[in-house]
Amino acid sequence: MTAGTTAVARPAVAAPAADDTVVIRVDSLTKRFGRGDTALTALDDVSFEVRRGEVVALLGLSGSGKSTLLRHLDGLQAPTSGGGTVLGTDLATAVPAELRALRRRIGFVFQQFHLVGRLTVLENVCTGALGSLRGPRLGLFSYPRAVREAALGRLERVGLADWAFQRADTLSGGQQQRVAVARALMQEPSILLADEPVASLDPESSGQIMRLLKEVAEQGRLTVLCSLHQVDLALSWADRIVGLRHGRVVLDIPARGIDRATVMRLYASVGADAAVGAPGPAAGAG
Amino acid sequence: MSVPLDQRPAAPARTTGAPSGPGGGPGRPRRTLSRPTPAGLLAALTLLVLAGGGVWSAVRLQLNVATVVDSAGNAADFVGRMLPLSFPPAAELARLTWQTLAIVIAATALSVVLSLPLALLAARNTTVGGPARAAARTLIVLARAVPDVVFAIAAFRVFGLGGMTGVIAMGLHSVGMVGKLYADAVEEIDEGPRDALRAAGAGRLQQIVGAVLPQVLPSLVATALHRLDINLRVSVVLGFVGVGGLGHALSNAISRLDYQEAMALALVVLLLCFAAEAVSGAIRRALLREVTDRSRPREPRRLRVRRGGAPKAVGARTAAVRTRPTAPAEATARGPARRISPRWDASRVRRLGWTALAVALVAASVVGADVSPSGLLDGVRALGPTLGEFLPPSTGGMADVLLADLWTTLQIALAGTLIGLVLALPLGALAARNVVRSPAVARSFRTVILCVRGVPELILAIVFVVVTGLGPVAGAFALGIGSVGLLGKLVADSLEEVDPGPAQAVLAGGASRVQVFFSAILPRAWPTTLGHLLYTLDVNIRSATLLGVVGAGGIGYDLLNAARVLRFDVVTTVVLMVLALVLCVEGLAVWLRKVYA
Q1: Membrane topology for this entry (chain B) (predicted)?
Q2: Which residues of B touch A115 (CB under 8 A)?
Q3: Structural domain count, chain B
Q4: Are B277 and B407 members of one domain?
Q5: Percentages helix, strand, coil for chain A, rounded to the nearest 5?
Q6: For the residues of B182-232, what is the DSSP string, one character each?
Q7: Contacts of B164 (CB under 8 A, 6+ apart)
Q8: What global pTM score does this model have?
Q9: Does the residue B353 lie in any domain?
């Protein structure tokens, strides 16, 4: 793993929430899809930092670049230019093996849960440990006993141990997302990325999932970056709000004590670009 | 077949010229029919030519009432000669049946083993690179392009009469279909779970085994079973070129003109096909049910029961949920012995039992079909020399004969497809649940189609060869009846897939059921039906070649003769000629589908 320009965070080091170690540094990250005139700029010169233990909500309209940004942080996509450092791994220069090692240390929760419906809940959770296992696995029996025990523990953590041997597709949406969280916890991650984790859920399940994410973040001293649609949920849940618009960071402020209207401007329509850009502490904190 | 020209509701009645408003002045009359497009016209013309070709072929082959009446006498005579059926001794019959089954099962297993890696390389989402993908696709297409009879002829050179020839021939040819369907299944998966494993740091192979295979497993098994059915039928044809089992016994009986035994064996093959179809059909339906269940959205049933019911009354309902075998209550109890594998409930035992049975059956088949590693090695070693005998292609100085016979084969296929279409359209429509009012009627027509489908074309061909004499007429009739099974089912399926909305709207407008069929169901099903029709023609050209092997006319006869006199270079030429013809039809199909999409 390449040593980054900033301090390298070790997940094992016990530290108080939100210490000064920068675990994510994004530096002029730009991503374009396609070429020439039809190219679409998904991320446009994005820069910000996240310190260990911070809980950050990413806000913005659909298509503002939230998912693309999260996927870059997990090394699932490569930047067109610029880059950043996550847990000491340089996103722009890392080779595939380094990116894989990085992914092992980052949990990722998807909007659509992404469970294999035909497999049991427990096997789905076990797949979270694949990054630290050797070779392909199919069937519960192919996972070491210790992994299965650990998976059951994670399921207990999210309150679904009773459902362990049921097919994943027999669960409700909220339950499936909890299984997905348990799967991410199998990695013992130091960073948790969540891409619209509650966008497909009803309000009650949404509340449960967000509480769960906050709890596991506090217990595991995780750094959390979560993209959200709901402004109120973000304000009450996160330490900090980062707002994206047309692939640019147009808002980066602490969640406490800010006024809802400021954030709502992110969602304002026509010609509001300047309006949002002007008052807020502009792009690129740090 | 008359074709509604452009189906698209393009530009509702274009007003040409004159700025006449709705009430309009005395301008030119507005168009009330959409303007025909050049492509639409050309497509309609092509279809007319094909249909005309079918009719012309039928006339040229003298498929008419007179022939049928003439044949009636033959048929009576034939029935007299085949009765009483004379079955071989039971032990012999059992041995032949087992040999056939073993060859077919082992061949299908071989095709699965070969197809899976090829399919993973050929699928867009799992391949390792462009060149690998192209190579895998080419191999799959080649396997389908070369008829199994030719594989059998080649394998016979190496292995001689026996199981191995059949296993290799059908195993290799099946890769064409199985590999393609496997690749399609892999490409259709939900990428989400795989993405999740990748995000968790899983390696490429781990992702494929952990997230791709579990998703495609049901369709892998279903495809293998489907191919098993097909191979069982094919194995009879291969009996004529030296694959052991029932087919070989049948071909011997026919060459001895022992129709009593031949028809007895044909009956056994028929029953075997029905039985295999019933078994594999039942398993496939169960698997498909599982697949469709998955895609249906789930109601959060359990959650609601727990949330609402648990705190208050731990009544019968909650208890019932608790005692469901899949939610063991003790899993939560933090006892020292926590369950980390599912319990041995009935469904798990059943699953394991079936799996064990399948594995045992495949293993027994491999042994029963005389498949041995040393034999396989011999095959690999003989690959080069055998291939050399087939290359370079040569016409053997009879190019004109080959071309004339290819032409006959095309005629047989066209006439057969036409017969199939004429019979299958009404049958298919009557078998579609959304066309016929009574479900019982639809079900009974479905059953008729299924029964026709169950009869191997080869058996039909043998019967017709005997009834109408050697030659193309037998082939056309056999293909025609055979197409009814394939086309009837496809037509019924594509009619049933039509969105019921428009039909209900037209019905609500006071239309009769016949009107509903022609205006709201048929137009929607037309593009798929056309696709199926061209597919049937494609299949029939290939089958017409094979049926020539048993004396039903066309180029297949040249194929068999060339193999008999060891002119394998001529075999290659025949294969290439048929291939060119099939490619033309496929190109036509692709283009027509685009026009009518």
Answers
A1: Multi-pass membrane protein
A2: 193, 196
A3: 2
A4: no
A5: 35, 25, 40
A6: HHHHHHTS-HHHHHHHHHTT--HHHHIIIIIHHHHHHHHHHHHHHHHHHHH
A7: B155, B369, B370, B371, B375, B379
A8: 0.74
A9: no
Answer for the pair A260, A267: CB distance below 8 angstroms, yes or no.
no
Q: How far apart are CA B238 and CA B247, in angstroms?
A: 7
Q: Residue B190 belongs to a domain with what CATH number?
A: 1.10.3720.10
pLDDT in tens, B118-138: 999 999 888 888 899 999 999
Handedness of CA B103, B107, B109, B110 (dihedral sign): positive
* Cα–Cα distance, B481 to B486 (Å, whole number): 9
B473-487 per-position pLDDT tens digit:
888 888 888 888 888
Domains belonging to chain A, first-starting first, are: 1-6+20-105+190-286 (3.40.50.300), 115-188 (no CATH)
What range defines the domain where residue B461 resides?
Answer: 36-82+391-597
In a domain, B419, yes or no: yes
- Residue B461 domain flag: yes
**A246-264 burial: b if 16+ Cβ within 10 Å, else e:** ebbbbbbbebeeeeeeebe
Nearest to A59 by CA among A214, A215, A218, A232: A232
B-chain CB neighbours of A184 within 8 Å are 200
Task: Give the E-state strand segments of A64-173 in sequence order.
Answer: 81-86, 89-90, 106-109
Q: With respect to residue B328, please indicate whether it lies within any of the assigned structural domains.
A: no
**Most B CBs within 10 Å, among A106, A111, A155, A162, to test the B interface:** A162
Chain A residues whose beta carbon lies within 8 Å of the beta carbon of residue B195: 76, 110, 114
Q: B379 and B484: one domain?
A: no
With an 8 Å Cβ cutoff, is A135 touching chain B? yes
Q: Are residues B54 and B131 in the same domain?
A: no
CA distance B155 to B149: 10
- Cite the beta strand spans of A207-274 per DSSP E: 223-228, 240-245, 248-254
Which is it for strands A81-86 and A89-90: parallel, antiparallel or unpaired?
antiparallel
pLDDT < 70: residue spans in chain B: 1-28, 32, 62-72, 288-338, 597
Q: Are residues B64 and B158 in the same domain?
A: no
